[in-house]
């Protein structure tokens, strides 16, 4: 199959075209899940699926499937390629859309080339991967994989007070299929890296072998407000200084560690937040990730120990609240090898890597062998109009997807 | 004069009565400068000045003076006792008001006792010491001392868009006297400590010999926003971590120093302030104070050096903007001694101390020998309804004020 390639112009043209659909008055890309803008993008995708001769199926959570099956293979579990086409607010054009359109492109090219797969091939666009309007993110794939009750998900209330189920009906994407009506033989998701590793190392393709575990916490430190001028340093219970100690500790430990743990404090607030008042309270969030559950737990335990010590030494009280906790996902070793083989065959450099972000693939991995392919993100930037991957990199990634899909479909 | 004492019941009653004037619908004390609530407090004070037989004079910045002069002493420079009666939002009842009402009480008691001063005695209530609505704080005394142009001060625009001069006219306190029309022979300000030192040491009275220098800065650190999951620790330019390093440095240096430098970071903000995004920007304020100008400068220089090193090592850019800078004030040695003598004569324990907060006395010290007397603040708390000083402590402080005023008026 290695002599088959995708239609590069068609793929690149569709990425640009879909990226132009769902812009607001300021020109921002805002195809937020189950919105009017999302409907415009979905309609265009469905049009392309139909043009490619695929059977279109929508499930009850709004996931869209384009199915290529033949009389000879329709009893087999399909090979699924997919991602999502909903976006954040003021998004780039590649995140998610690239994986869906490249999946379609791979299937369409195989079909046009007269390839005769032993299994059906399916491209999937999962509902609400971004989680901007309805929580949680990766909802469509989570429901598809049986990880969340359908009715509960449909009852989700959005940030704007709308109900997801009603919105899906309104935009015409409350389908009839039960989520999970397809049982994938394998799932492959092609995605922009959204991180700096591939660009920094000059490597064209990432064979994603696992996905980091995530631990999100909110920390609240209570000290004592006091006058900044009249309170000697030794008599202070400064919640802000205590927060700074935690931030420094996390950066030091994650920075010095031989593990791949990353730690981020992205939000913070002081109370009363006055220039001449010692903070009585500091509230901040912690985002810890590691591809190894044991290392993630070690970091969490080290944090607990540090917070205990800090509470005693700084005269503050510390509360920690878990906001989210996902164990790491290990992708299917055979598919990861097929990705490496595909890269080797076609020429681009390739490395095994970890996904730092969450993706639909982590949900589908619950029910089918899964893996991901990454291509470089310029400057590591994503969730921004500045998101960019060069055309030749997009094409190289899609050709590997085609290659892997063809091999899996021959199983 | 040491056998004269104030009328304790009258003083305590007036403190309570003034503290009940200018409450909002939630019961909060809100006599913010030049507001309708401030007018209510001013009107009550003027009533008491008139009842005491003092001549009431208002200057153009709204400072209120109650003057006791006789035909025999009217050509002499007066001894001035004073503070302010404007408050913060949700204030306690002692800050400022205690000094004004105790000044009135000392003069009224001397007058009633038939004391014959060689100099006039004046009680002053300075406009807008708190600086909540109009900036800067200590404005009335600063203008009185010639440290700020009158017209500029009257043109100050408040946080609510009002103009100070218009507001003073509106509430009837745009007086006719030029600020500085009185040239004090000496100035004494009695005030609650607003800090924990006296209570902690079990000492009744502070003879305030100096007032800390203040350096206020706003620091802006720019790094690079990036995905919290996909950006390795070694590739980050985390503005939030850099800010935490600064906060830790200040607490460490001020805490370990043998100087009396205090350092506070009271406000902070991250951008974009999202749980899963490395902060691109951190903005925070620094409040440095020391009674010794040299030590204050050393701290400022150490901060500059630290920020320079940080910018290089953390890959961030750092901007520092000065928001305010006052050199320390040394009060008049003779008045400080008189305060100590007064305490010794009357019995309460006394220690020399530094004022950590700014006060009108630091402005008047530009034009006349000045000093301050402190009494304990329960828990060091101020600018809060929880502000409290016990009645016997209030009375003891006022009696020392009377004693010192009488001695100075005999000059």
From TrEMBL, chains A, B:
InterPro entries: Amidase_Cbmase, Bact_exopeptidase_dim_dom, Peptidase_M20, Peptidase_M20_dimer
Binding site for Zn(2+) 1: 84, 95, 191
Ligand binding (Zn(2+) 2): 95, 130, 383
Keywords tagged on the record: Hydrolase, Metal-binding, Zinc
Domain Peptidase M20 dimerisation: 212-312
Keyword Nucleotide-binding among UniProt keywords: no
Known EC number: 3.5.1.6
Gene Ontology MF terms: beta-ureidopropionase activity; hydrolase activity, acting on carbon-nitrogen (but not peptide) bonds, in linear amidines; metal ion binding
UniProt xrefs under NCBIfam families: hydantase, PRK09290.1-5
Name recorded for this polypeptide: Amidase, hydantoinase/carbamoylase
Species this protein is from: Mesorhizobium plurifarium
Name of the coding gene: amaB
